[in-house]
Design brief:
membrane, six-stranded antiparallel sheet, alpha+beta, five-stranded antiparallel sheet, 10 helices, transmembrane helix, transmembrane, 16 strands
């Protein structure tokens, strides 16, 4: 198939332009796309890390408040008198703790219970309880024997049992290292889980509704002089500061939400049989994938945001339902990988949550011995990829738009550009007349005839000569 010179010129120019645009667009796409993706990953991991740090700070603030109250002189003197003299006059100690709780309302401290260091005290219920005199009305998620809703108060039912440890005292059968004349005991809230380990014991959160919850921290009461354990104390506090971290919108854009994932154990730490990763240990990811985890707080969608965790809904009573950690790849990586960043923070732009919904997440771990919690900052994949898709659309629109514009421009330019050549061709064809063409054709024919006749004469002479030779 013959292609006209005009079309050849247009295709050549268009091909050159497309090559030039490709040379510019491909490196731009690769570099800028990677740059945007890295910025998105950094933003997600940084947001998760900041929120994990804030949760750590809030837990340690309550823990430090508990330790401060446990160091009060009147409390320690009352405990010493109890062990030395059997004196059960707790009036001064109660008043002292009540004043501390009232002052601590800024940190949400509500109740306190003091336990013995060994089997000297009552088997359950502790030595004494205190509820802050200015405690607000807090409706607990259970009812009394009369069917009425129970509130947080100074009655027996007003102390939520799920936030107070059921202590078992284990005689270690040797003298206390600090006071050898005293038998050593281990106060365990759960089997092999002593309260004095890791700075205390965190129970909860006890979810009251979608916007409020309670937690408790139990610590050892140590003598101010020699750090000998005089007893144990549990403080119940509002978890409003942790809920504020979940509900704050910093760094979440439109579709973002904060999730807090933890183990299913009541003491908020993974069992010794299935520890998470640390600086010296990395668990087998496949084996760890079957470990159950739960949402510490109910996932909270904002406004008209799509519910990406409909299987864990507070109103349905399923917010605390465990699921295998392998269903949420980001949580699995957070718990099994040791990442050399602050709070073990990292991110994933293309993953899914426990329900298979496509999301982008940043994750980080809290840095407190009280809880093995992982903070997840989750966004919809569509919103996360919006800058990348915008860049792609700009580049594609630029390339094809430029190509289309140049096509419209090149065709008339090529037409006028080859016009002189076409005119020269036409003029050349016209300069040769039809008569000349016929005469030239006639002369060529005559020449061929003459050559034929000459050839015929020569052949006849040769034949005659040969006949004569044979005859002689």
């Amino acid at each position: 198939m013959r292609i006209a010179i005009r079309e050849q010129l247009a295709l050549l120019v268009l091909f050159t332009v497309l090559v030039a645009l490709t040379v510019v667009s491909v490196p731009t796409w690769l570099y800028v796309n990677n740059h945007i993706a890295n910025n998105l990953r950094t933003g997600l991991s940084l947001t998760a890390s900041l929120k994990a740090s804030r949760i750590t700070s809030e837990l340690e603030l309550i823990q430090n408040s508990c330790l401060t109250i446990s160091s009060r002189i009147l409390l320690q003197d009352a405990l010493q008198d109890f062990y030395d003299k059997g004196d059960k006059n707790w009036a001064n100690a109660k008043e002292d703790i009540d004043s501390a709780l009232s002052v601590g309302m800024s940190t949400g401290l509500l109740q306190a219970r003091v336990y013995s260091r060994n089997t000297t005290g009552p088997e359950d219920g502790g030595l004494f309880n205190v509820t802050a005199s200015n405690v607000p009305e807090v409706i607990l998620p259970y009812k009394g024997p009369d069917g009425e809703q129970v509130t947080l108060n100074d009655t027996e039912l007003g102390y939520p049992p799920m936030l107070y440890p059921n202590i078992t005292y284990v005689n270690l059968n040797y003298g206390n290292p600090i006071r050898p004349n005293t038998s050593a005991y281990s106060a365990q809230a759960f089997p092999d889980i002593p309260i004095s380990r890791d700075g205390g014991l965190l129970l909860g959160p006890l979810i009251l509704n979608e916007t409020s919850a309670l937690i408790s921290i139990s610590v050892a009461i140590r003598d101010n002089t020699d750090h000998f354990i005089l007893g144990y104390m549990t403080i119940v506090a509002m978890a409003s500061s942790i809920l504020q971290v979940r509900d704050s919108r910093e760094g979440l854009d439109d579709s973002g939400m904060v999730l807090i994932v933890g183990p299913t154990t009541e003491w908020n730490r993974f069992p010794a049989s299935t520890p998470m990763s640390n600086a010296t240990y990395t668990p087998n990811k496949e084996a760890f994938g079957s470990v159950p985890v739960r949402f510490v707080l109910p996932p909270a969608s904002q406004g008209d945001q799509a519910d990406r965790h409909s299987n864990h809904n507070f109103t349905k009573g399923t917010s605390n339902t465990p699921f295998p950690v392998k269903l949420y790849p980001a949580v699995l990586d957070a718990l099994t990988d040791h990442i050399p960043t602050i709070n073990n923070a990292s991110s994933m732009l293309d993953t899914h949550n426990e329900q298979g919904v496509a999301v982008a997440v940043g994750y980080a771990r809290t840095q407190t011995a009280l809880a093995n919690w992982t903070v997840i900052v989750e966004k919809s994949k569509a919103e996360t990829y919006q800058p990348i898709n915008t860049l792609r659309n700009i580049l594609l629109g630029t390339v094809f738009g430029t190509a289309g514009f140049l096509t419209l421009l090149i065709i008339p330019c090529a037409h006028f550009g080859v016009l002189p050549i076409r005119r020269l061709k036409a003029a050349t064809e016209k300069s040769i007349s039809p008569l000349d063409m016929r005469s030239r054709s006639s002369s060529r024919t005559t020449k061929k005839i003459r050559q034929g006749l000459a050839g015929w004469d020569l052949r006849d002479l040769k034949r005659a000569s040969l006949k004569r030779l044979h005859a002689s």
